[in-house]
Amino acid sequence: MSELKGARAPRGRWTAPAIAALKRRGEPIAVATAYDFPTARLADEAGVEVLLVGDSLGTVVLGYESTLPVTMADMLHHVKAVVRARPAALVVADMPFMSYQASVEEAVRNAGRFVQEGGADAIKLEGGERVAPAVRRIVEIGIPVMGHLGLTPQSLLAFGGYKVQGKGEGEAERLIGEARLLEQCGCFSMVLEGIPAGLGEAVTRAVGIPTIGIGAGVACDGQVLVSHDLLGLTQGRVPKFVRRYADLAGTMREAFARYVADVKARRFPADEESY
Ligand code: KIV
After folding, report:
1. What's the maximum distance between 2 C-alpha atoms anywhere in the chain?
2. Residue 216 beta carbon below 6 angstroms from any ligand 1 atom
């Protein structure tokens, strides 16, 4: 714990160096997505160490079919809501499609907006070699960066669907090389998504910064799930790697149905709920 003290802000908030230090202590890191004030509060109270305002916002909250339509404006709106919860957790803002791909300058500017306007503690972006120059510059100006390798959803069109990545030997070697490169560029951690568990373990051994897995096996230094998936709010099929810890969809549906029934039967409001 003494190693972590200096890395924490005065109010006991998690910092990027403190999260990175958890790997050296061998303590698994719990990461969950959050897009709004109440969810951020609840996840934080439960001990989640990193709140990722993911661009999964597009599919789980905004009703898009992929993350590609999500904009900086969408993301900033939700990053601010999560930051207003004043969590102890580190708040990581996910850079949406086309906010960092066109040029290093645009990447730096948009990363800066997440910190300056949004109040985020760090940013995340997808990719390895092709984003290395942007990662270097963003880290240089003092913004902690979380990388993201494997099944990167913003490359959905190029992958031809949500397919497990890094399956062949050459692919696996390339991914390990990109993980090392992201570490050299200064990332404080990286998400590994949709890769074989053995490769998740190999990457975790190959780098000194924490790997945060989602469908990447138990050997990763931490795990991340989309909160709507883990809470059972996602309707329909969910990926194999999801574990549901609640059935909030069922709970909500039943509550709405009881409310409708009470309104129709004039059981709501009662005298004590009236002025
Ligand atoms: O957008 C997101 O929620 C993510 C996580 C699934 C890692 O990138």
Report:
1. 71
2. no
Q: Separation of 149 CA from ligand 1 center, angstroms?
A: 11
Residue 27 a catalytic site member: no
Six-digit token string for 130: 């092709």
Domain boundaries along the sequence of the chain:
2-244, 248-275
Helices (H), 117-223: 132-140, 156-159, 169-185, 197-206
Q: One digit per residue, pLDDT tens: the chain, 275 residues?
A: 344 444 554 458 999 999 999 999 999 999 999 999 999 999 999 999 999 999 999 999 999 999 999 999 999 999 999 999 999 999 999 999 999 999 999 999 999 999 999 999 999 999 999 999 999 999 999 999 999 999 999 999 999 999 999 999 999 999 999 999 999 999 999 999 999 999 999 999 999 999 999 999 999 999 999 999 999 999 888 999 999 999 999 999 999 999 999 999 999 999 999 99
- Is 75's C-beta closer than 6 angstroms to any atom of ligand 1? no
| Region 2-244: CATH code | 3.20.20.60
- Any alpha helices (H) in the chain, and if so which ranges? 2-5, 16-25, 37-45, 57-60, 72-84, 104-116, 132-140, 156-159, 169-185, 197-206, 227-230, 248-264
**Which of 193, 254, 272, 273 is an active site residue?**
193
Q: How far is the CA of 195 from the centre of ligand 1 (A)?
A: 14
Contact 88, 123 (CB under 8 A): no
Cβ of 95 below 6 Å from ligand 1: no
Centre of ligand 1 from the C-alpha of residue 142, in Å: 23
